[in-house]
Amino acid sequence: MSEEGKGTAASFIEKWRSRWPEWNVAEVFVPAARRPAVDAWFTLLQELYEAAWGGSDPTPGLAKLAWWHEELEGWEKGARRHPLGEVLQRQPAPWSRLGRALNVLPGTRGQPAAEAAAALAGLGSAVWACDAALVAEDGREPAAPANADAPAVVLLGERALLAGADADTAWLLEHWPSRLPAAHVRRIHAALLRARLGALSRGQEPAALPGWRVLAMSWRAARSG
Fold this sequence. Notes:
Blueprint: H1 9-19, H2 23-26, H3 35-53, H4 59-76, H5 85-88, H6 95-101, H7 113-119, H8 121-134, H9 150-163, H10 169-175, H11 184-201, H12 211-223
Helix pairs in contact: 1-3, 3-4, 4-6, 6-8, 7-9, 8-9, 9-11, 11-12
């Protein structure tokens, strides 16, 4: 079994939840029946972002992204190797579309945010389409935002968070979409991400937010669609 396929779904999810302890509060706005799939989905995205942008050497990440492209194509055909597939593979999401969109990620490593946003438009759209499918919002494509770069801007927020204090943080906050016509799980997670980026911009460690703030922020985000 490849390195990407080792472990259990629960172990991968626990790694993601340990990085986003706010989700213990925020998930109250996610239907209970959908929470396992949403947890696995955000965990999968973390794996992809780390492969694309994590570490000082891009070479291992290139191999992982190629593996994930093949894996997601397999999910569309009913096959799976990664433990997260036990939770996600049967979900009616456009896995093949997501897999094909991964090929833009290597070129965005270190690319200025303004340029990377244009390159990541297709991937951002694929991510939002999976969001909608996984929370059973009629399986509909999210409405196009007024700012066509909005999905990519949010995605680049994850890159900035991986990088720590990043020159792009100010640009991202300036261009952060005021409204996200996306699945409510995306709006909730984007609100948490925006708060962490705000802390980075002030030279603070993006520590977990207090529960009362997460609750209020998540409630507003869930209702804003």
